[in-house]
Amino acid sequence: MFKFASKPQSAALAFMVAGSVWFVVGAVYGFMSAIHLVAPEFLPHVGALVFGRERPVHVNTMLYGFVGPMLVGSGLYYLPALLRTRLWSEPLAWAAFFFWNLTVLSGPVGFAFGITQGREYNEYVWLADVSLVIAVVCLIVNSALTIANRQEDQIYVSIWYFMATFLWTASNYPLGNVMWHPATGAMPGLIDSIFLWFWGHNLPGLLITPLATGAAYFVIPRVARTPLNSHTLSLLGFWLLIALYSHIGGHHVLQSPIPNWLKTVSVVDSIAMVLPVSIVVINLWMTARNFGRRIWGDPAARLVMGGVVWYIVTCIQGPLQSLPFLQRVTHFNNWTVGHAHIAMLGFGGYIALGAMWHIVPLITGRELYSKKLVSLQFGLVTFGLTGFFLVLTAAGLVQGTAWHNGETVLRVLPQLVPFMASRAALGVFIFTASLVGLYNLLMSLRRGEEQEGAQLQRAEDAA
Amino acid sequence: MKMTPAVLIVGALMVFWASAFIIVGIPSLTMKETPSEIWRPLTPLEKAGHRLYVKNGCSYCHSLFIRVNDWDIGAERIAKAGDYVGVEPAILGSERTGPDLSQEGGEHSDDWNIAHFTNPRFTSPISLMPSWDFLTEGEITALTAYVQSQGGKHADLRQARQREWKKQAVEAYSGGFDRNIEWLHAQVPEVWRRMPNPYPATEAALQRGKRIYQQLCVNCHSPVGDGNGPAMPFLSPPPLNFTTLRRHVVENRYIGGIFYYQIMNGITGTAMPYFKKHLESEKIWDLANYLGVSFVGYTDANTEPRGIDASFEGAWENSYPPPGRERPELPVAPPAPVP
Lengths: 463, 339
Hints:
By secondary structure, chain A is mostly helical.
């Protein structure tokens, strides 16, 4: 067992396989909850299958189960590769894998039975919180010591992001989850909403975003076979991200009675987020410039570049939504749900999938089972997600303007039916995509064609 | 700038903690917990309800704060920081698929809420909320208590009013059909009791009324209007059997205005909610026409005293006479009176 856990890159692979499996689980729950929003009496009288219990399973499984681990797995590959060394301790990475997945598992087996803190994106109960923090600490130790043992002098930007993600998460997660109040995981009173959204927004911002950015910074130059456009830009992007992002959670409770200065800080920094985002996007775009054919010709890099495009979309939406005047219409309705789907599945998910398809052959030394299936997955996810974006944004505008004009929720509900029905139908595409991905991954591991050594070497040199 | 491990690790942590101090540290140090004018502590039963609210993810559809720009719920009162003193966790919610609940206490009677939790479609046929019938009776009671506490002292006032009127409504119901309807009608101001339905019961109007009935009323009053809808077993007094009104339709006992008033304002103390926020005037009149025509066999639309005909209406002859009278021979295609 221990010998198995010491095999180089085995933990990286395990994280990515787990990500693919959780993608299927998350998609099933997402699909089910979408059906329940059209047909509330579908599978009735089952406590574990009501929307209020399915939604946290869907959300947390997708975030912590699919996107997170897949990106962590790719990071565990590129960290030693970029530093020209071995991962400091493979068993420690396996320990992180174990504790991390224990936390994710507590979602489907806990939330479904009401074992939850009920705070959005902070739902995991205290024990699961502890398990996640242990996993993150394992990853910090492992990354730091791998960096310390490096053969390569320069620390590449992907590594900054990978390392910093866990430093931030280890600081962030206990704070936002109010881990010093194990019973409820919450503060008493309105201040709770500030703590809640501190983590609620830092989860995509300081866990998923840096991991995904790091992975994109790894994959794009590698596939384009060219150095990164600008070191200075990546420095700016990195420091602006952390300086600005941790401030903006307050825009989720902008219209609640939190202090006004806090609202101002949230809004100003939300808008300032345009800077680090455009810096990252411009840097990657300039790197890929003139190599469009290579990027587009490679199914994995195509997914990563797709993620970068969704990143632009979601980060134009986000600052706009945080403007108080616009939020009157875009808050409290499906617009926000659409935004979250683009951010998580579009940006994080695309890059996670792309990075995985790029890295799995490098780890196993075998070709992917089928590149066509990767392209199929890309097509399915793109169709489904574009549909989600359009349908949910439209539904949100219907709801938002209706309420703003004095309609009641009861009056708006019948108007939502066509949107909710199409959303559930689009869920089929995402669900199918997750199945296609899992099948392709498992088949690649079992019977992918052996790559030629020379070809492999050439791929390594480009990194 | 060269990224060394020290710059990376120390720098990343320092910037993060400085940011975190601003965004959660300073508010923790400066925000005061001063109860607002409506705040009161939750009772143990309400606290149990709050736990259930949290456990079952109610916050994913129901927000718990009213914004400045909330026209949708009538927004009598905007949420204040002092409303949330001691609530742990105070999940404000980010979505409003269902209505905001922060001021909901006492808007409906307890039995309405219990029927609603058992199956939301009993009381609101278009609801998307899941049925909570897998919860125990005690848990549903606790949830009801929690929702009824929302709005603090304001909710207590509304609750007291509900309880007071419930006693009278139950007593009137136990006195038999005639007594019950006498009592119900007596609660409607004189002017409304004398007002006939001003809108003609045309095919279109009846269609509109039918649609509204099916969206809002059908699961209490049943598809045939006899009050035996699926929600009936939960409600006390039970929903009105409209067909009993036939006995009360005699000359000069108008029903249009009474229907209108009771649909608009609801009947406090019973499960009948008010619909004035959901339905415009004409829709209420259309519904009243539909109730009259379908379940009583009579509508007083277009009878005296009536005002000037609306300019958009065509000529319309009331073909629904009070019971016991002959249906008048309808003139074939009456010429529209053009003054």
